[in-house]
Specification:
By secondary structure, this protein is mostly helical. The protein is built from 10 helices and no strands. The protein starts with 20 loop residues before the first helix and ends with a helix.
Length: 273
């Protein structure tokens, strides 16, 4: 009798695919990085301190925690558990703990009431999170709430370093004059490039309001006139960028130019104080 051929060993369960941490943590809205680093840079330039650096670290950790939170909440709502779900849960827990620890360290070492700025920004941050979890983060209201919330980081950093409250919160006002019109301009510009109605009225009106608002802060001597001049430059770029004479730019090119304009606002505000 011919012996039976040896049987192949039973295959075990297939190993779970590896999930790149970068895909779980890094936000898909790359333009939001600029809106994060502008207030961090502005706050540290006008009022550098170790407690301010901890505020910046807390803001960065909270910013990075948004994406994994959104991923695992959406997965759980669907009743699905993917390899990314567990990675997202662990990443969120780690980043949330890091943000809380950094903020606690900042509060202990701060020379000013930075929690006032955090508290004022909390409703805006909550609204942003609600848009995120409802998968509507790309709506104008969600983007505006998020940009306004992040602007409070400049005030918190400045307060942590002992800057006067009025001038610290004026930084938030300057950044609001930068971010709100910019979001409306970019959305109008992208619609224009796609051949859709651009809604230019809101974009241009917000630029005019930004000039007036920052000029009022300068009149009250809590913000420099250079910041108001920067708002005027942004208004000119919006008028030109929405005109028939505008240059044709790809989305990534438009994003890079806006980073440059953000740097202009930060430097004008910091150096003109």
């Amino acid at each position: 009798m011919t012996p039976d051929p040896p049987r192949a060993p039973a295959a075990g369960p297939a190993p779970a695919p590896r999930v790149a941490l970068r895909l779980v943590v890094v936000p898909t809205e790359h333009g939001s990085w600029s809106f994060l680093f502008e207030p961090i840079a502005l706050g540290l330039l006008v009022s550098p301190s170790w407690s301010g650096a901890l505020v910046a670290l807390a803001a960065l950790a909270a910013f990075l925690a948004r994406q994994p939170l959104k991923l695992f909440v959406v997965d759980r709502r669907r009743g699905k558990v993917y390899p990314r779900t567990h990675v997202a849960e662990r990443a969120f827990a780690t980043l949330a703990l890091l943000a809380a620890a950094a903020l606690a360290g900042a509060v202990v070492t701060a020379r000013g009431p930075l929690l006032v700025a955090v508290g004022l920004a909390a409703p805006l941050a909550a609204a942003t999170l609600a848009f995120d979890l409802d998968r509507r983060s790309r709506e104008a209201a969600g983007e505006l709430a998020g940009a306004l919330a992040v602007g409070a980081v400049a005030s918190a950093v400045a307060l942590a370093g002992g800057w006067p409250a009025a001038r610290s919160f004026a930084l938030w006002g300057v950044l609001a004059g930068r971010t709100v019109p910019t979001i409306l301009f970019v959305r109008a510009r992208l619609r224009l490039e796609k051949g859709q109605p651009p809604r230019m009225g809101w974009a241009l009106a917000s630029q005019a309001l930004a000039i007036g608002g920052v000029a009022l802060l300068a009149l009250r001597r809590v913000a420099p006139w250079a910041a108001a001049a920067a708002m005027a430059v942004l208004a000119a770029r919006a008028a030109w960028g929405l005109s028939p004479a505008r240059p044709r730019l790809k989305t990534w090119q438009l994003g890079l130019t806006e980073i440059g304009y953000g740097l202009l606002v930060v430097l004008a505000t910091a150096l003109g104080r």
